[in-house]
Design goal:
CATH architecture: 3-Layer(aba) Sandwich
Strand order of the largest sheet: 3-2-1-7-8-10-9
Order of helices and strands: HHHEHEHEEEEHEHHEHEE
Number of domains: 1
Organism: Geoanaerobacter pelophilus
Protein name: FkbM family methyltransferase
InterPro entries: FkbM_Methyltransferase, FkbM_mtfrase, SAM-dependent_MTases_sf
Largest sheet: 7 strands, mixed
Structural class: alpha/beta
CATH superfamily: Vaccinia Virus protein VP39
Pfam family, one: Methyltransf_21
Number of strands: 10
CATH topology: Rossmann fold
CATH class: Alpha Beta
Distance between the termini: 46 Å
GO biological process, one term: methylation
């Protein structure tokens, strides 16, 4: 009887055996706290102020609307190349004050045009990317205007404290065109991926190297998500801050 009770307790406390069956692998763990907005709200309480920010890979505008709620009155440049989502993006952002500046373009290390790949429904294609994908050719491919983030910031005399990059594997391309911003932006929120779904996608190592080489440190990891097939980490968001940020001024533990 005692043995049965102990075995039942062990089964309850231990994580599922990854060799049993796929339905047990993730144990419902497809996402993990904390959320990005919770951590930036916390940073605000610690004195991190945002008067201007860039939402790069804005899609339908959810991030821009949320950051505008956290920092009322902040100026936002929202950048999204997908032509099919522009109407929804504008509709979702129309009553924000001041009005976000919406740019229909992609960002990379140089100016010009590039092919933008859209798999599935163009109105719901959160996986759309400048990168190719292991699943093969995109059902929709559009030629989009491309510029560097440095050029965009200079054009609008924009000096953001916060830049968010959600580019489905093309984050390094964007950062390679951001040498000036990497000298001044206090915080970057950058999507990372651990799988090789996108060909030549930005790796966590590349992102860490770029930011550490530019006097940033890893401040937080948020929005981690796991694939249901085997519970493997598929990605999340890195938060990097400048070493000179007041968020890094305290060195003790308690």
């Amino acid at each position: 009887m005692i043995r049965k009770v102990l075995l039942s307790l062990i089964d309850t406390l231990l994580p599922p055996n990854p060799l049993i069956k796929n339905s047990d692998l993730a144990g419902g763990r497809t996402s993990s706290m904390p959320r990005w907005d919770e951590r930036i709200t916390h940073a605000k309480k610690l004195g991190f102020n945002v008067t201007s920010c860039m939402d790069v890979g804005a899609f339908s505008g959810t991030w821009t609307r949320t950051i505008s709620d956290i920092y009322p009155g902040c100026n936002v440049i929202a950048i999204e190349p997908n032509p099919h989502i522009q109407k929804e993006l504008k509709r979702n952002l129309f009553n924000i004050v001041p009005p976000p500046k919406i740019l229909q373009m992609a960002v990379a290390e140089k100016t010009g045009t590039m092919d933008f790949n859209i798999w599935g429904d163009p109105l719901a294609a959160t996986s759309a990317s400048l990168q190719d994908h292991v699943r093969g050719d995109a059902e929709n491919q559009v030629t989009v205007e491309v510029d560097t983030l440095d050029n965009i910031a200079a054009k609008f005399a924009f000096n953001p404290e916060l830049v968010k990059l959600d580019l489905q594997g093309a984050e390094v391309r964007a950062l390679n065109g951001s040498s000036s911003l990497l000298k001044s932006v206090e915080m970057f929120l950058v999507e990372f991926g651990c799988l090789n779904a996108y060909l030549d996608r930005a790796t966590p190592r590349q992102l860490l190297d770029i930011f550490y080489d530019n006097d940033y440190c890893l401040y937080d990891i948020v929005e981690c998500h796991y694939r249901p097939y085997d519970g493997a980490l598929t990605g999340g968001d890195f938060i990097f801050v400048k070493n000179s940020s007041q968020l890094r001024s305290y060195k003790n533990w308690d």
